[in-house]
Amino acid sequence: MLYSRLILIFLVFLLFQDCKKDNSVISSNSFAIPGVTKTANGETLIDVNRDGLTDYKIVLKQSQSKDTPVSLKTNLFEMIPLDDNKILFLKNKGCVPFDAGMLIPYNLSSDSLVWLEASATLISKRWTPDDGWQDHWYGNWAGVENKYLPIQIVNDTLINCGWIQLSSSTSGRITIHDMCINQNSKDPIKAGFK
N or C: which end of the chain has fewer CB within 10 A? Predict the structure, then answer.
């Protein structure tokens, strides 16, 4: 009985140590870009059109289940549109990275694409004791380099298409490289083009 309690205490200690080692961050290089700032609580604020108002924010959400048979710790990096701004989603696939040159449309001609005022999970990580508390990153944005997140900035009746260029490492580091908005309302823009 004492032996099993010691093992349990040791396992909880290891879990606590592993949680403290979490190196999931927004790359410091991201904050060299005009319009990208970090708050005291770790949120990354993005002012794409540089009008002084935050258009999107990236937050790291952490949770740990205690009421399931297997303990599970999860981290999620979410891109959250603010006000009426939107993110382009592929139905049943979520928010997917665009390659440079892909057209980001204002009008959608496909039933598979939809503009939503919804949070998009970029990458997720989870740990369980079954896998030895190893990191498992997943999501459409896991391990991508220099891909584009299609966005729309909505300001009254004006809707401007744009993109945010992102990379994510396998260690949970997200980097914002660049961003752009088409100044012509209701016109498409190609990912990576200004």
Answer: N
Q: How far apart are CA 54 and CA 46, in angstroms?
A: 6
Q: What is the pTM of this model?
A: 0.81
Residue 110 placed within a domain: yes
Q: Which domain holds residue 118?
A: 23-190
- pLDDT attached to residue 78: 92
Residue 9 lies in a domain: no
What's the number of domains the chain is made of? 1
SS3 146: coil
Alpha-carbon gap, residue 148 to 48, rounded angstroms: 13
Residue 104 token pair: 């980001």
Query: Is residue 36 within 8 Å of residue 164, measured between CB atoms?
Result: no
Q: Determine, yes or no, domain membership for 6.
A: no
Strands (E), the chain: 25-26, 36-38, 44-46, 56-65, 72-81, 86-90, 103-104, 113-116, 120-127, 136-138, 147-155, 158-168, 173-181, 189-190
Question: What contacts 8, CB < 8 A, 6 or more positions away?
Answer: none
- Return averaged pLDDT per consecutive 10 residues of the chain, 194 residues in all: 43 35 62 88 92 94 71 82 95 93 91 92 77 72 94 92 92 89 95 95
Closest by Cα among 130, 154, 22 to 76:
22
Answer yes or no: is 18 within a domain. Answer: no
Question: How far is C-alpha 125 from the chain's CA centre?
Answer: 12
